[in-house]
Write a structure and sequence with these properties.
Radius of gyration: 25 Å
Distance between the termini: 32 Å
Helix content: 25-40%
Strand order of the largest sheet: 11-12-17-16-15-18
Structural class: alpha/beta
């Protein structure tokens, strides 16, 4: 993968210091519970350890660590009852959510034999959570609660892993750059964006590139062994349909290798591109193979959006990060006979989204709506749940997520070479389209197979972005 990011997660646990001299056996018990909790975190995150906190001073020291590391999220394990001064100094100066992990060590105490030490040490869950949330609300801090049993609770494990995936989005936004090549498609004003506002609100920095630089990017790629290996990768990714010249695949491989080096050199996680010039000479060569070349980047974690749409590049990156695959999408047509919406797009996509069969590409004489012609790609998702994520802005530049779940179904689709798939929504095709459009998204959105609204809600809480859920 070209883009690999580990979220930085602050972790600490709290207990009331007054209990420890009264019940000294609680100290090794709490240390063991805290060690077990840290060990349970997935390897997709880098743990910033704030320690076992029983005083205000220890909480402040944990907060210093979290700020210095620029953590993406904080997990606070409640070991027993604790006052909120054990928590607030650790998170007061942070602008990320704190997840209160409220785990009881045993499913149920032996009520006939349990004494105070057992109650406080292994059977006290829930008592301090309300106090913590009350003070988090007064401090204006984002928060969530996970309640369950330590070490033996699939729901707890799933929630923690979901939060860690969501935290990866913030780290990817902060650690990688966005490449804008050219400008948005002329007149698609829903795509236009203020890149400084994007950086201030979402932490994504935009690097600007001209097409002249992109045309020359493959000039120095001459390693025939590397080119041959990339040709094999392209054939492994796509069924090439119709008549074509293998020399074109060789040239495409040169550009893919060049783009991969460009991504590494510029530390790119996102690309938004549109070319509106004359597709002649070197420009025509690149333009003819850009769609599959960018598809090869998407497969490796770089979200590449057509028509210069920065916002959908962000959405694609979110879906790729949390689900492993993404697809740029937009409305195509209704099938009112079957009450479904046909959704898809012409352009770069994710081979990992093509789960029903191998992705394909073929040469078309003309691209619809843009200059030139060349290789067009198509992706084939299998029937099953699907989630759509749109990103938009209000009049003051604040971002908003628009999300919906549906079900991809088998059935006829357009035969024009574009990716299209049929989606049924719980509220019906008409009402879904009405509500989706009333939410004011851009006309592009990202798709992922599976149900991911719960994860999107966590991403939104981490990024401090509102979400409008259309249907589930």
């Amino acid at each position: 993968m070209l883009v690999e990011t580990k979220a930085k997660v602050g972790v600490f646990s709290i207990a009331l210091g007054a209990y420890l001299p009264q019940f000294p056996q609680l100290v090794p018990e709490f240390e063991s519970q805290y060690a077990d909790f840290k060990a349970s975190l997935p390897t997709t995150v880098e743990v910033v350890d704030g320690g076992l906190v029983t005083t205000k001073e220890a909480a402040a020291a944990a907060g210093d660590k979290f700020r210095a590391a620029d953590v993406d999220l904080v997990f606070m394990q409640l070991l027993t009852y604790a006052t909120s001064y054990n928590m607030l100094p650790a998170i007061r100066d942070l602008n990320v959510p704190v997840v209160l992990v409220n785990l009881q060590k045993v499913r149920c105490l032996d009520f006939a034999t349990a004494g105070t030490a057992e109650w406080l040490g292994i059977g006290y869950a829930g008592g301090a959570v309300g106090e913590m949330v009350a003070d988090l609300n007064r401090a204006g801090k984002r928060h969530a609660v996970i309640t369950g049993v330590q070490g033996d609770d699939p729901e707890v494990k799933a929630q923690i892993e979901d939060w860690c995936r969501a935290a990866q989005v913030r780290r990817r936004f902060r650690n990688t750059n966005l490449a804008q090549i050219g400008r948005p498609y002329p007149g698609m004003m829903d795509l236009y964006i203020d890149e400084t506002n994007l950086y201030n609100r979402m932490g994504v920095y935009t690097k600007q590139f001209d097409w002249e630089k992109m045309w020359a990017i493959a000039d120095d790629v001459t390693d025939e062994a590397a080119i041959a290996a990339e040709v094999a990768q392209i054939h492994d990714t796509f069924d090439v349909l119709g008549e074509y010249d293998e020399k074109d695949i060789h040239e495409m491989a040169r550009y893919v290798l060049a783009f991969e080096q460009w991504v590494r050199d510029e530390n790119l996680g996102f690309v938004a591109s549109h070319y509106d010039g004359f597709a002649q000479g070197k420009a025509g060569v690149l333009d003819s193979m850009l769609i599959p070349a960018f598809s090869m980047l998407i497969k490796q974690g770089v979200a590449c959006a057509v028509e210069g749409d920065i916002k959908v590049a962000l959405g694609m990156s979110i879906m790729k990060t949390i689900s492993g695959a993404c697809q740029l999408s937009e409305f195509y047509t209704f099938d009112f006979n079957d009450d479904v919406v046909l959704i898809g797009h012409s352009g770069s996509g994710d081979a990992d989204f093509s789960t029903a069969r191998k992705a394909s590409m073929e040469i078309v004489p003309v691209f619809h709506g843009k200059a030139g012609g060349g290789f067009l790609t198509r992706f084939y998702p299998k029937p099953g749940p699907v989630t759509y994520l749109g990103i938009t802005q209000d009049a003051d530049g604040h971002f908003k997520f628009v999300a919906s779940e549906g079900v991809i179904e088998d059935g006829p689709t357009l035969g024009n070479g574009d990716t299209t798939f049929r989606t049924r929504f719980s509220i019906g095709a008409r009402e879904w389209n009405n509500r989706w459009c009333e939410a004011g998204p851009t006309h592009h959105y990202a798709a992922a197979q599976g149900r991911y609204i719960d994860t999107i809600l966590k991403v939104a809480k981490i990024l401090d972005v509102p979400v409008e859920v259309i249907c589930r």
